[in-house]
Design brief:
single chain, about 400 residues
Length: about 400
């Protein structure tokens, strides 16, 4: 079975074609700047990359280009679109409707639309990708996997906010959590690396990238997570502020004469690493500046490490213990010094990392000290593979 995995954004389409017989990636690519000058497709096959630059007016044109490229006589990997047996899509928000991946039908599409008020920048674009693929690959079943689904197991006392209850009843205001596909994948891989049944483990998963979140995975299910109603809550991130006193919002709005939309822009796109450092949202730039003595850059790094450390401690308390901690995503997989800083002063929990083992980037490896009570791992995430596996399982039923 060949599964095409699609992540459709507002102006982009990420894709992978995966052979599920051996879970090998036949091709992967990106269509970007859809509807914008300078649009192009980049595709990689067997380690070789190439680029096509042409006008891509909308997502339908973009998907047609993807299919034409995948079936191209010279650069393609399949001879005909009929070789695509199913399509799996990433959808950001499933609200309270979905706790697992599902085959698309009209009811599913309607519920994705209803959840768009909770993810207005993402769900409409995700749904657009589904509808375009339905049109262009009509014989292939369409499956959707939700970022929020894994976290639907979180207990009520963890997902509810202490607001008037009618806001939950009327507007579904609650914690949903995101990066669920990534947290699920690395937790399962951690259990495999330990040779243990995931249902017997308490794992803290740290998805640390430009967007960042931590999750408590207890007995194979999400028990709590740092992101909330939106991805803004929790850790500070590349440009997101993360946790803050809610009273700071109206205070700043009044002082700066900002509208709600302008304040939302500040918190989502001008804060985090960028806001504190004043340099960049990329930790690599900030680390370089910190090494040169920039105090605000160092402060941003210290704040991030401190906040991740706090979440690890709180989730160990929430689960009454922890067996493993795992780092994934861009920062988690590659920032050696950041992992060391995060794990500092967690020895009381049995968390200690080995300096030599920790000298690794982008690989699956245990980095905990020999004899440490809690195992610590770096594991590259693979959300596309989770979507492909779910798609295969559903289609085969």
């Amino acid at each position: 079975m060949k599964v095409l995995v699609i992540n459709s954004g507002s102006s982009s389409i990420k894709y992978q074609l995966i052979n599920m017989e051996n879970e090998s990636v036949l091709a992967k690519g990106l269509v970007e700047r859809i509807g914008i000058e300078g649009s192009r497709l980049e595709q990689e096959v067997a380690g070789e990359e190439f680029e096509i630059e042409e006008e891509i007016a909308d997502h339908e044109v973009g998907m047609e280009l993807v299919i034409n490229t995948l079936t191209d006589d010279d650069k393609g990997v399949i001879s005909d679109v009929d070789e695509i047996n199913a399509v799996g899509h990433r959808v950001v928000h499933g609200g309270e409707y979905f706790d697992s991946s599902v085959i698309v039908d009209e009811d599913v599409k309607e519920k994705i639309k209803e959840s768009s008020n909770l993810a207005p920048l993402h769900n409409p674009a995700n749904l657009m990708g589904v509808e375009v693929c339905e049109e262009l690959i009509p014989e292939a079943p369409q499956v959707v996997t939700f970022d929020t689904a894994f976290h639907q197991s979180i207990p009520e006392q963890a997902y509810m906010y202490a607001l008037p209850y009618e806001y939950y009843e009327d507007y579904s205001v609650r914690r949903y959590g995101f990066h669920g596909t990534s947290h699920k994948f690395v937790a399962q891989r951690t259990a495999e690396e330990m040779g243990e049944d995931i249902e017997d483990l308490k794992i803290i998963t740290c998805h640390l990238g430009n967007g960042a979140s931590v999750a408590a995975v207890k007995n194979g299910k999400s028990y709590d997570t740092s992101m909330g109603l939106t991805p803004l809550e929790g850790l500070m991130m590349g440009t997101r502020c993360g946790d803050l006193d809610p009273a700071a919002v109206p205070f700043i709005m009044e002082k700066e004469d900002l509208s709600p939309q302008e304040m939302d822009e500040v918190m989502n796109n001008k804060s985090g690493f960028l806001g504190v450092s004043g340099i960049s949202s990329d930790t690599r730039d900030i680390e370089e500046a910190a090494e040169e003595g920039n105090e605000r850059a160092q402060l941003a790094l210290d704040m991030f490490a401190y906040r991740v450390r706090k979440y690890i401690g709180s989730y160990a308390a929430a689960m009454n213990g922890v067996d493993a901690v795992v780092f994934t995503a861009g920062i988690g997989e590659n920032a050696i010094a950041m992992r060391e800083d995060i794990c500092a002063d967690l020895d009381y929990l049995g968390i200690e990392i080995d300096e030599d083992k920790n000298d690794v980037r982008g690989e699956t490896q245990e980095i905990s000290s020999d004899g440490a009570e809690v195992k610590v791992f770096t594991i590259p995430t693979n959300e596309e593979l989770v979507i492909a596996r779910d798609t295969k399982e559903l289609v085969a039923e």
